[in-house]
Design brief:
Elements lengths: L1 E4 L2 E4 L4 H101 L44 E3 L8 H9 L29 H46 L2 E3 L22 H22 L12 E4 L2 E4 L6 E4 L2 E4 L5 E3 L4 E8 L5 E6 L5 E10 L6 E2 L4 E5 L9 E8 L2 E3 L1 H15 L2
Parallel strand pairs: 3-4
Antiparallel strand pairs: 1-2, 5-8, 6-7, 8-15, 9-14, 10-11, 10-13, 11-12, 12-14, 12-15, 15-16
Helix pairs in contact: 1-3, 1-4, 2-3, 3-4, 3-5
């Protein structure tokens, strides 16, 4: 490095190391100066920006904390509401179970009454078999050569009878419903799918989680609904079946010219109309209808049992029918007032219905004979007996022995002459026997 001032000239030699150090020191001083100047100028902006960032972060944290607290409050409130809801639902289920217990007790009573009347609603297993049909009365040959007799009577017969001894209370709506129940009389009822009726659902001893509780309550409610529906279905089936059976018995009595008290004679035989699904009705009205129908059926059955519908000599064939025939002794046309049952001497004669013996002994051409007055007012006569086992004034039940077949009196051989009389006028007994075959399964409980 050369420095000249006027005539004075000076020269210096600087080593690279010194030059580098000097440059570095100068640079450092310059950077420090510039940095200090920038700090002094920008310090306030930096501090303010930092403070704003911290304030924003704090607000964000506070908002997040408030949101979490709100969520916690919502969850807590929901849990409280769910707990209350579950408790209320459990209380409802318990109340429904108590109500269903009461209903089931009433339905059980109705089922017992229905069983007493021969109506059995299946509560498990397959459908029960139908009742065995009553033995048929064999008409046999009308021109059989043995065992005929009897006394001649006028041919003109016009019987009119009102059956006594019943207080059945019927109405047209019940009769129509019975007819619309449309199944053959005496057949068993359908199984009502009772798997839920065998036992009621019970709550577990250890309470499960809330979600499981809700599912359990739903299952219990579904089971209770199913059981309630089965009870309603059973009541409907019992009511319709009882009404139908009672109408069948009444119709059969009408065919015999008998009128059961309390049952209208003009029961409509035609059916039809649009299909209308069965709407849900009140339980009390259902059970009231079933009770009324069972009471009416019981009363109609009691009245019908007073009609002589059974054969006095079960399984025996007929040797002579009711109506005009050639008299076996005189050879002229005469009225045969009964049926002649072909049987050997000593075969037991049985009462065709309950009643009171109003005659027992010899009676002219009838020989040894018995007469019974039944609760319906119908009188049955049994003639040509070889032996009489009852006395006047005795009370007999259906199937009780009255004596034995014989050939006493105006008779050509051993047989039973059987008559059915109303107001001392004879009716055709075969109509009563066929009616008995028709409703035998309804009268047998």
């Amino acid at each position: 490095m050369i420095i000249a001032r006027g005539d004075n000239v000076r020269s210096f030699t600087i080593s690279p190391l010194v030059a580098g150090l000097a440059t570095a020191v100068g640079t450092m001083l310059m950077v420090g100066y510039v940095g200090a100047t920038a700090y002094l100028v920008l310090r306030d902006d930096i501090i303010q920006s930092s403070a704003e960032r911290q304030a924003q972060m704090q607000l964000s944290y506070e908002d997040r904390i408030a949101s979490l607290r709100s969520r916690i409050d919502q969850l807590t409130s929901r849990r409280v509401l769910e707990r209350r809801s579950i408790e209320e639902q459990l209380a409802d289920v318990v109340e429904r179970q108590r109500d269903l217990d009461t209903r089931q007790a009433r339905v059980s009573g109705i089922l017992a009454k229905a069983a007493e009347n021969g109506i059995r609603v299946a509560v498990g297993g397959p459908v029960p078999p139908a009742k065995p049909a009553a033995p048929a009365v064999a008409l046999g040959s009308l021109d059989a050569p043995t065992g005929i007799g009897g006394t001649p009577e006028p041919i003109e017969i016009s019987p009119v009878l009102s059956l006594r001894g019943t207080k059945a209370d019927y109405n047209a709506a019940a009769e129509a419903a019975a007819r619309q129940g449309a199944a053959a009389p005496g057949k068993p009822l359908r199984d009502l799918a009772p798997e839920a009726a065998a036992s009621q659902p019970q709550a577990p001893a250890n309470p499960p989680a809330p979600d499981q509780r809700v599912e359990l309550i739903d299952n219990v409610n579904a089971a209770l609904d199913r059981m309630d529906g089965e009870a309603h279905a059973a009541l409907d089936v019992i009511a319709v079946t009882a009404e139908r059976d009672a109408a069948t018995i009444a119709d059969t009595a009408d065919e015999l010219g008998l009128q059961l008290a309390g049952v209208k004679a003009d029961l409509a035989s035609g059916q039809g109309g649009p299909f209308v699904p069965l709407a849900g009705s009140d339980f009390d009205s259902r059970i009231e209808r079933a009770e009324k129908a069972l009471l009416a059926l019981s009363q109609v059955k009691d009245a019908a049992r007073g009609i002589p519908l059974a054969s006095p000599v079960p399984g025996a064939e007929l040797s002579s029918s009711f109506g005009p025939r050639v008299d076996p002794f005189l050879g002229r046309m005469a009225m045969h007032t009964g049926l002649d049952f072909r049987a050997t001497t000593g075969v037991t004669i049985r009462a065709p219905a309950p009643g009171k013996v109003i005659f027992a002994g010899r009676n002219g051409g009838y020989g040894r004979s018995v007469e019974i007055r039944h609760p319906s007012g119908v009188v049955t006569r049994f003639a040509h007996m070889s032996r009489v086992s009852v006395s006047e004034g005795d009370t007999v039940s259906t199937g009780d022995p009255l004596g034995a077949v014989g050939s006493t009196g105006r008779s050509t051989g051993p047989h039973l002459h059987y008559e059915v009389r109303v107001n001392d006028r004879p009716l055709n007994p075969i109509r009563f026997l066929r009616a008995g075959e028709k409703i035998a399964t309804l009268l047998d409980d």
